[in-house]
Amino acid sequence: GIDGKNARQLTWCGGAGAGGSCQYAAWSPDGKWLAVQRLGAQSFLLDASQPWQAQTPLELPTLPAADNHFLAWVWSPDSRELAGWQRNVNGLEGGLWVYTLATQRYERLTNVGIEPHWLKDQRRLIYRDQRRLWLFDRNTRQITETLRLDPMGVTKAVLSPDNRQLYFSQIDSDADLWLLKLP
């Protein structure tokens, strides 16, 4: 069973003085990398098969805009790209970006939005903005409103592995989980 005896610490992010505390982590689908967000700092990649002391974490390049960090959120299905969003030093979000490992370059997708999720086709991402869900198509650059539940709104969406269903929470004082069938 799982008893925690084999747990090993992967990072020593420390507090803000040590580069920021670790916030979120995302495994690459191929299992090779772990993308880690740090509070108030740039995201980095870990080879989770190696102990912290035996590797040099790969810090992702900074975004083109000054005083902004890339918050790595989710890997593309082929493990070649990371989608995330921009956050400035004041905590304000500034849109979705994709980082490509091979070229070490960013592509700006939108000017708004957070918490992107790749669809299996690797060209579309669903994301949250203004309490709604949106769909972005990288080929056409088209943005489509996917779900709007006024006046409460939507938060924390998660796609099913086959991309046919989307689980989400509604912002409400009497909140429950909801299920949306995708076309």
Descriptive terms for the model:
183 residues, mainly beta, Neuraminidase, 4-stranded antiparallel sheet, 15 strands, 0% helix
Total domain count: 1
What is the mean predicted local confidence, pLDDT?
A: 85
Distance between the termini: 40 Å
Query: Structural class, from helix and strand content?
Result: mainly beta
- Could you name the CATH topology? Neuraminidase
Element string (H = helix, E = strand):
EEEEEEEEEEEEEEE
- Quickly count the helices: 0
Question: What this model shows, in words?
Answer:
There is one protein chain. With 183 residues, the protein is mostly beta strands. The protein has a single domain (16-147), classed as Neuraminidase (6 Propeller). The protein is 0% helix and 49% strand. The protein has strands at 22-27, 33-38, 41-47, 58-59, 68-75, 81-88, 93-100, 105-108, 114-118, 124-129, 132-137, 143-148, 154-159, 165-170, 177-181. The strands form four sheets. The protein has a four-stranded antiparallel sheet, with no helix packed on it. The protein has a four-stranded antiparallel sheet with strand order 5-6-7-8, with no helix packed on it. A hairpin with a 4-residue loop joins strand 7 (93-100) and strand 8. The chain is globular, with a radius of gyration of 17 Å. The mean pLDDT is 85.
